[in-house]
Every structure is written in structure tokens, then in C-alpha cells.
Amino acid sequence: MRRSNLPAELNRFVGRTAEEAALTALLETSRLVTVVGVGGVGKTRLALRAAAGAQKRYGEGVRLAELAPLRDPDLVAYALVEALGLTDHTPRAPREVLLEHLAERRMLLVIDGFEHLVESCAPLVRELLARAPGLTVLAVGRRPLRVAGEAVFPLAPMDEADAVALLAERAAEAGAPDFAGTGTGTGTGTVVAPEPGTAAVRELCRRLDGIPLALELAASRLPLLSVEQMLHRLDDRFRLLADGERGALPRHQTLRTAIGWSHELCTPEERLLWARLSVFAGPFDLEAVEYVCGGPELPPERVLDHLGGLLAQSLVSREDTPAGPSYRLLDTVAAYGAEWLAALGDTERMRRRHRDWYMGLATWCELEWFSPRQAEVAARTDVALPNLRAALDVCLEFPEDAHLAQHLAGTLWFAWVGCGRLSEGRHWLERAVALESGHEEARLKALWVLGYVAVLQGDGTAAVAALHECGERARSSRNALAEAYATHRMGCLALLSDDLPRAESLIGRALDSYRELGELNSNVLMGQVEVAMTRAFRGDLEGAVAICREVREVCEERGELWTRAYALYVLAFSAWTREAYGEARELLTECVSINHTFRDLVGLVLAIELLALVTVSEGDPAEAALLQGAVVPVWDTVGIRLFGSAAFDGPRALCAQRASEALGAEAFDVAVQEGRHLPLDAVVERALAGRRDPAVGGAADATAPRPFRTARSAAVPGTRKPAGSPTGKGGEAAG
């Protein structure tokens, strides 16, 4: 895990020297500090600045959790798990995962935008602080959490000098002619207002109450208007607002004045786009804007121009993400846009268009998961997660859309299973299947995906319930593909339960059905790898290798990585049995890299366990013991260690035996304990670095016990290389 996920500053931080010093000092004495203030006063920017400056004091670094996009209070703990970069495959509640992870860590957690979720956020923060003595929380919102021990840091608007400096800096950045040469870019010097009109500049800053967002909005207009013209327009706007909102707080009035005035200066098309953009949660890309916001009044081909106009006026911000450039509305600006959208009577229609786009994105991602774009799909899903959550919320909100909730939750199986979000996936899937949609196909898919998630979580009871219902309903409705998926996942459950004959029979039967139906995708290939594992565990290593070589060929043809990693695991074990340790290490290095990229902890820990066995065989028992120790806490987040399976436990047990014999029990335990305290990223880095201090690696003892026996292969139905789909069906959409 990276030490920080704080965003980079896009422009120079201006002023607030005293406030930054005071907030930094408060963090040294208080474990819960909440920065409060009116919208647009700069709470988030100051908090992130102070957090970045304090990183060195926290051994586990600083993590930012943005809660503003959330609507469902039940998702607060999931959002914190995501922010901490955790992957948990167990059926445990995310609150338990957080408590366990933070219990012995020294970390600063920044929680931004919690005010609409305070009823669920406050108890969680209270419990985390009570159970994790090394945790410090820096919260940012419009009101306190009201948790015992909370130090509230009220952030006032900028004083006159800082306000003038900020206005001048941002106006110079925007290219305002009267401010040319006054900005300092990314430097550290002092920004001053131009001599001509300094009094007017100060008056403008006073009128805007020193609120940074209001100042930045004003600065974006200074290339077009003089300061005096701006003051005149603000006078008119203040009078209008005073007539309409006499009960509003003065500073709230000021911000609404600045935003409303910016709204009036926008073109009609920009105002409409602003209102429609308010339905997005978190970052969004241009394609999404063109679809969701486009229409007769706002032609999609003109959306980019209007978006550029909002960007130039500081109403929209641009950010770079792993999936490419994205845009975002500030929360305060989005709230204003949402009011206008409601006044237009268009909120529900726009929320449904937003839902439709993200359902389409999920469908595309599912299809492209089985392609060379798999890593891109993982990145796009990660960035789109807040909007996917919003789409699921809309589906679940309207009873007539229950089938869409089931379809979307099932379609996102690759995000839940392939990208390490089993717990959140189960949350959405259980909510979706609890509804009676009247659309059998959508329900069946949600059921087998729910069963798959429960299998991987080690919850056999829930898995059997979901898969049995799926199988029964699939047979009744003559849905052979859904029945095949249910059968496949029942076989997966048998594999993890060491019922190997049943596993091979069920998965083989499912593979035969997939072939008859023309189904070829990552799930089908994973089924072949699972058959290979049953073969290997039953002693037919040669047959297992033959299957996995075929799977690897298909993966290379299709650019598939996720399933490829599991095939490499089996091939690496084969190389180890042949004492080809270099080949085994090379295969496992690729396996570890792929699984870490996709946050697939199951595949990752299996690969590292086998890598430890290779390492001890190479003659480095200390490093092998350290790697074994390193995966112990990872297994705690996966579930029952090695699924409670004696078959999967083979490499670990043999490695422990050999390393302990070579080192002695005491030295072995010391190395294991050292590994237990390594962060996951450090473990992966160590594994990818290869042998650290290679000794003379001897051949494996031919008489030593082996986790897998070897035997001649025998044909198993459904394990040949799958043919292409004669019906054109492919990807992951069917079922």
C-alpha cells in the first residue's frame, strides 16, 4: 500500500500560513481534529496541505477518504476500506476489517465531506479511535462530528492580505490583463495586487468575505471584466439575494451570491450543462458527459466547448486519473447545480440517464475484461466506482427498476471478484436479489455471482443457498447458461472443500455446457484451471500441466491476464517438481505481478506461498520463512487460511518443514515474525525482486514429501481448448 493517496496540488497554495501552522500543531496533540467552516472556505485544501506536511510523523502514512459522493450511509465503512487500499475477501463486516487493520498502525486518516452522513460516520470514527491507539483522524465538514475528544478547528475566511494575494494569483493565472506579472506560478514568493486599482481589489475581496471559492470564481472572470465592473455586478446580485433569502447566514449569502453571479455570467448552454453535471458522483469523463448531459438543447458535439467554459471559470476542475483525464464539480457548485436541475423538473430523468450510461459502461467493461484491455477495465472501474454506486442506488430506489439492479450488480462480477471487492459486491448483490424483479435472466445472473462471491469468502452456507436457487430456477426457465454457471460455482465450492472428485465432475459438466453454448470468457478459462487443480491435487500433474498450457495459449491470444495468473501458478509448481527453480520463479514473478495489479489476494497469497517453497529449494530458508510469515496477515483478509483445504496447504506445509529443519525452530520463528510485519507492497516488491542472497541451490530431495503426486493424464470432459463462439457470444455478458 502506498504511504499516501493524497492528490497532487494543481496550483500554488496561497496564504493561510498561520492557519496551517495552527492545524499542524493541533494534530500533534489531538487524535481527532475536525476542520469546520462554510462551503467554499477552503477546508479541504488546508486539511490536505496540513496532512501532506505531517506525513513523516505517521509510520503507515496518510490516507484520504472522500465521502461526499456517497448517498447510502451503509457504504461509509466500505469507502474507508477502499481509501485504505484494503482488500478483504471474508464475509466480515467492513467495520471489523477496519478495526483489525488499524489496531496496531500509526496512521493519519483524512475524512472529507462527511456532513450528510454524520449519523453513521461519527460512531464509526469513535470506535476506530477507541480500538486503534495509533490512529489520528482529520475530518473535514460543515459541522463537527460530536465525538468525545474531538478538537474542532473553525476555519474563518481569509484575512484581507491573503484574500488579495489569492485573487491576484488566480487572476494572473487566468490571464487577466490588469494582473499580468503579479502571479508567481508555482513559486513561493508573495503575490500582490497591481498598483492601479488596489483599493478596488481590496473592496472586491471584502465584498466576497474572503471566501476562497468566491475569490477564485471572481478571478476567473477578470480576463473579461474589470474589477470595477465586477463590483457593480456584485452590488446588483447582493440586492437580489437579500430580497430573496433574508434568513440566510451572511457568509452563506456571500457564497451563494458569488456562485449565483457566476451562474448568471454563464451562457444558457453552460448553465444547463452545470445543472446536468450535478447528477455525477465523483470524477467523470467527457464521454459520460456527452451522453448523460447531451440533448436537443445541448448537442453532444458542443458539450466539450461548454465544459471548457465551465473549466475556465473554475466551476469544474480537471484531474488526471489512472483511466485518463477526468472532471469534477466542487461539492458546493454541484449543490447549486442540483437546485437548478430540480427547478427545471429534470432531476429524475437525468439520474436515469446517468444510470443508463454507467450500466452501459459496466457492460462494456465486462465484455472487455476478456481482452487485452483487462488492466484498463480495472482502472476505469476503480475511477468510476462512485458513479457506479450512484447508479446502483437509483436502480434500487425505484421498484420498477429492480431487474436493472440485479443486472448491474451481476454484470460487475469482475469488479467484485477480479478486483478485490467481494465484501462490497455482496452488499449490492444481496440487496438486489432480495427484490422480486419479474425478470428471470437478470435475477439468475445476480444469484450465481452472489454464490461465487460467497464461495470465495468461505461462506459455504450462503453460497449453497444462492447457487441452489439459481440452479432450480434456471432449470425451470430452461436457461442452460445460468444453470452451467451455478453448476460451475458449486464445483468451485467442492474444490475449496477438498471434495476433489465432485469438483472435477461438476466443473467438467459446466465446461461441456459452456462449449455447447459457445461460451468463452475468463470464467470458462478459470473453470479449466480449476479442473487442472483438481487433477494436480489427485496426482495427475501431467494432465494439469497440459490443461494450463492450453489455457495460457488462449490467454495470450486474447490478452487475458487474470486467469493466466492462475494457470501460471500450476505451471510453476510443475517447474518446481522438475527442479527447474529459475523457471518456477519466473512464472511466479509474473503471477504475483498480475494478481497484485488486480488486487486479487487469493491468487497473490497462493503464488507467494509457492514462491516460498521455490526459495527454500534454492537454498535460502530464511527468505522462505520470511515470505511465509508475510502472507499470514494477508490470509486473515482472505478468509480461512488456504480455505481450510489440505490440498491447497501442500506447498506451505512442505516449505515450513524444510525451512524449519534448515534454520532450527527458533530462527524459523524469528524470520516468520519478521515477515508478518511487512506491509503488503513491501512483500510484493520483495517477491518481484527475485532471490535476495542466493546461496548454492541444491536439487530438491527426491525422497522428500511432495504436495502433489504425479501420474499419467486421463481425459476429462470439457478440458480441451475452447473453440470460438459460433453464435458470436463471448465476453462475460451472458448468463
Automatic annotation (TrEMBL):
Superkingdom of origin organism: Bacteria
InterPro entries: HTH_77, nSTAND1, P-loop_NTPase, TPR-like_helical_dom_sf
Record-annotated Winged helix-turn-helix domain positions: 270-342
This protein's name: Regulator
Domain Novel STAND NTPase: residue ranges: 10-123
Sequence segments annotated as region (Disordered): 694-735
PANTHER family on file: HTH-TYPE TRANSCRIPTIONAL REGULATOR RV0890C-RELATED (PTHR47691:SF3), REGULATOR-RELATED (PTHR47691)
